[in-house]
Every structure is written in structure tokens, then in C-alpha cells.
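Q: C-alpha cells for this one, please.
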Amino acid sequence: MTEEIAASETGREPGPPSAAEEDAGRLTGASPLRLVAVLALLVLLTEIVPLQSLMVSAVMPKIGQSFPNSGHNIAWILTIQGVVSGATIAIIGKTADMYGKKVLLLACAVLFVAGSLLCALTSSWPLFLAGRGIEAVSWGMVAVNYGLLRDIMPRKWVPIAVAVIGSGVGGAAIIGPPVVGAMTDHFSWRSVFWFLTIYTAVLAVLVAFLVPESPLRARQRFDVVGAVLFGVGIGVTLIYLSEGSSWGWSDAGSLAYLAAGLVILAAFFAWERRAAAPMLDLSILRMPAVSIIYAVAFLLASVQAQISILVPYMFQTPKESDLKQQIVEGAAAKSHTPVPVISDMMSFRGDISYGAGYSVLDMAVHITIWTAVFSMVFGMVCGWLCRRLGARIPLIIGVVATGAACALWINWHSTWQLQVAIGVLFGLGTGFHLASFPNILIDSVSARQTGIVTAMASVFGSVGIAVSSALLSSILAAHPFQTVTTVPGRGTVVSDVPQVFTDPGFSLAYLLLGVVPCVVAVFIAFPLRAGRAPARGGEVVARPA
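A: Here is the predicted structure, written as C-alpha cells:
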């Protein structure tokens, strides 16, 4: 305690807590039923992170119709989520380490409810985006939950519990589509935000009364300057990465965002080296166990995000014959020309044999529910393996399985049966990766640093997603499905069909954004020294006298 008082007075963070301090709030004598209930509540509350993304993505076209003044900025419904979450995750994680993990978890839930209510009620486009930005702060919940579980669960439960948190968020793919389908069939898109509001409020109340708080605190002054520099720097950089493809990567205005973001981040690192109580102890980044995991998080988060985009893109595209008929009929109606005449004048360039014309619900029933189940089941298996064997081998297996799935999808992605069959490998990869990396981080750092360290892994993942999304847009744009119209006396006109891309484009995306990052990640992860022993659940290792 003397060390904590001295640290608080000087603003510096104290050293690692003793085993007795770490075990002070642990539910060691609790019944298995209570432990399962606590874990279930935390998983369900954290579920709002992927759930709101999935549900809002599904109703974006309907939202756009309600805000006609949004114009081409409708994509900001998702962009603002990535920017705000990337800018705030680390701050939320650090604040949780300092002031209480349960407190910050509930604070995120309250902000999410406020943001959802604003989205449900407003008729103003700027206010709607503000609501989405407020909701995005909830993304810090996952990192906070890792630390909370480390502090309150019995040691032998921790490896499996953090694995369930990591892979359990895939449950959104199971419950999201049916709920969205039912609500939008009977009510407006605003019902989605009302559902999210009620869901989060009920679970927040249950967590408040049934989940204990961690007594551990990182007792130091809050680094306001560091937090502002980091949040602004990451946010501005993510704006460039998210919007560069539409604004132009070399456009002066776009480059201004990139330059400003990099300068601010450089100022952040300069400040953190001198600060008495830094937001991020930069020595942590020099730890191989941490830096390697961050590099793998950057690569694997990008792969998983792009697969979640590619598969719906393909299977929600109409069947090739139906799409061609729609295009011909649309051109005939626009030019007031008979359909047979347009058919004779128009041909098509490119292969889109993958199209199925699925709705969101069809996608869930045929594909996404199954891959989500695979991820959740393999995640729990990985938690058990981490406790028995260590987390390094499961991490490498997860990366290899993800890369193997992407390699198979290069040539075999045209039917839902192929997607599900190969999706077993992808689910194994996702579950093993999401369950192993938090176990490695938890065993590598002090309990007072768990929030900020696990949150930074999410920051690296957010940057990876932004970079790979930009690359995906470029790859698909280079492989458009085209119409070739020959008008007698006027020559031939070749036109791209908007938002429809050819098979070679998707195959190249699976290769460059799936296989290649996984190959790099394997080489990065293989020399990892951490995670070779059974996961300890963050147990303090006795230091030599």
C-alpha cells in the first residue's frame, strides 16, 4: 500500500500487485452457477459491440431514405463508428484500469443507450451521426471485460472466460439477422435502435447488481494530454484511411488528414516519453509478447473484417441471369425502347457466377449463423487448450487455419455449401485467434495494465481494418462487371455496373487480403516466447529476491 500512496503522490504507476492484492476480489468460493451467470451477463452485454454493427449495416438503405440530405455521406453511418471507436478504445481501457472496470463497463453501456435513443428519435442527420459516434464508445467494452474477468474469476476459469468473451461476440451473427428481419418487416428502421436501447439497458441493470467490481486500481494521475493526443491522432488518421478511396488518396485535402494524424501521434509518443504518469507505458510496446500480438491483431483483424464484407457482397448480389435481366429491363425502361431491342444491343463482360440474391435473413440461415457457431465452439475449445498447453500453439493454429480457409475460397466460393464447408476452418481460425491473444497478453502484463494493453490490441486491429478496407475497395474497383452496348451508327459504349464485381476480383481479394496477411502473421508469431506454458490466468509469478 505504501508503494501505491507514493505512486499516487508522484503520478507514477506502482509496480505489479502482489498475489494477495490480485486475489482480493476473486470469486474463489462462488458456485459454478454464479460464475457461469457472471460470465454470461458480461458476454451478453459485450454483444452490443458486434450486434449494433450487424443490425445497423442491414438497415442502412432504409436509414438513407429517411435522411435524403445525407447524400453520398450515408457511409458515415459506419465510418464514424470506426473512427470514434479507434480513438476511444485505449482511453476507455486505461480509465478502467484507474477507476474501476465495472464502472467503465456500465459507463459505456449508459453512453450506448444515450446514443441509441438519439438515433431512434432524431430527424436531423448531424444528430443521427452524433448518436452513432456516442454508441461507438461501447467498443471499449471488450477490453474492459478482459481485465474484469482476470480480476474476479478464479484463476483456472480465467483462460476459458476470456476465450468466451473473445469468441462469444460472434453470437450477434446468430440473433441479429432474425431480429432485424422481424422488426423491419413490421416496423421502421428506428425499431432497431429501440431494440438496442432496451437490450442494453436491461443487461446493464443486471450487470450492476449481479457482477462484482474489481478492487484493483492503477493509482496514478490521468494523462489528459496523452489521452487527447492519442484520441485525436488515431481518429484523424482513421478518417484518411476510411475516406481516402472516395476523396482520392493523393488529394491535398485527404493528405492533410494523414499528415495531421501522423504529426499528432508523433507528439503523443514524444509526450509519453517525458510524462510522469503516461497513458501508455511505452516500455510495454518493446515487450515481444505485446508487440508480436499487436502485429498479429493488425493482420488478423483485417482478414476477418474483409471476409465479413466479401461473403455478403457476393451472396446478396442477384443471380447472374436475374441481374442481367434487371439491367436490360432498366435500360429499356429508361430509353423507352422494347426489351428485345435492348437485348440485341447489350452484352456483358465479366463472370459473376457467385450471385445468389440472398436477403440478410437468407445470409444468416445459409452462412453466417454457421460460421458464428464454429467460431464460438472453437473459441471455448481454445480456452481449454490455453489452460492445458499454453496459448502460443493455438494462436499459430488459428492463423494457419484462417489462411487455409482463404486459400480454398480463392477458387471455391460460388455456393453457400462451399462457404460453410470451408467456413469450418475459418471458424476454427477465428475462435482460436480471438481466444488465444488475450490469454497471452493477460499473462504478460500487470493486472493494473490489462485494460490499456488489451485495448491497444483493438486499436491496432481498427487500423488494420481501415487499411484493408481501402485495399479491398481498390481491388474490387479494378474488376467491375460491365455492360457493352452497341448502338448502330454511334459505336460501342462500355459501362461499369455499380457495386457489382467479377469473380477474379473476389479471388484476388481472398489471396491478397486473406492468404498473404496470414502467411506474414505466421512468420511473426512463430518465434513468440510467451504462451509456451499453460495459461496462468494472470497469476503473479514470484520474482527472485
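A few notes: The longest helix spans residues 360-389. DSSP finds 22 helices and three strands in the chain.
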